[in-house]
Write a structure and sequence with these properties.
single chain; Jelly Rolls; three-stranded antiparallel sheet; 3 helices; disordered N terminus
Length: 189
């Protein structure tokens, strides 16, 4: 290897070696901070492999054009699914040790209220021009409040500015259907 710690990602894929994921999690746990609480394991890869810690503060819904794989390593999480506008979101728990493959295009909000929970999430890298949607649903009437589409490049870096911009703009947080003001990122679904 070229001087990288065995618990860190390797910038040159030819130099990658197996490592213990639990050691990687221990070494990077301090980086798993809200609002999303995630960190990519490998940056130079065709897959987005990330570890997500508990205590996240998000209530947006991710509209991913590709499938997502969830493996709940420690503790439990709650994957909130929003089937369609005007229909109430529903909760789907993913327990410690369970895996789930989320179909493409299913709007979902990963909730990890337990600060000690840890999960592994694997997504496809998006080709240039393929956008991800991030949506906020009205807590009162279950209609769309706001949607942002972005080209995801580094998911752990791209999302916090989206949430900050949403939180800072009350007009954007106001439901066009019923007029209720969305409480912002810290509120739980």
């Amino acid at each position: 290897m070229t001087g990288h710690a065995p618990t860190d990602w390797d910038p040159d894929p030819r130099d990658r070696r197996p490592f213990r994921l639990d050691a990687w999690i221990t070494a990077h746990r301090h980086e798993l901070v809200p609002p999303v609480a995630n960190r990519q394991v490998f940056r130079q890869a065709d897959m987005i492999v990330m570890v997500v810690g508990g205590g996240n503060q998000r209530n947006d819904f991710h509209d991913d054009p590709r499938e997502e794989f969830f493996h709940q390593i420690r503790g439990d999480m709650d994957l909130v699914i929003w089937p369609t506008e005007g229909e109430e979101p529903f909760h789907m728990p993913i327990r410690e040790g369970e895996v789930y493959l989320l179909p493409a295009g299913v709007r979902h909000s990963p909730q990890r209220p337990d600060p000690d929970s840890v999960g592994l999430v694997v997504e496809y890298q998006r080709p240039l021009g393929e956008l991800d949607g991030f949506e906020w649903v009205c807590f009162e009437c279950a209609h769309l409040v706001h949607r942002v589409e972005i080209q995801v490049q580094a998911i752990d870096r791209d999302l916090p500015p989206l949430f900050a911009a949403f939180d800072a703009d009350e007009e954007v947080r106001t439901c066009p259907n019923c007029g209720a003001v969305h409480p912002g990122t810290g509120a739980r679904l």
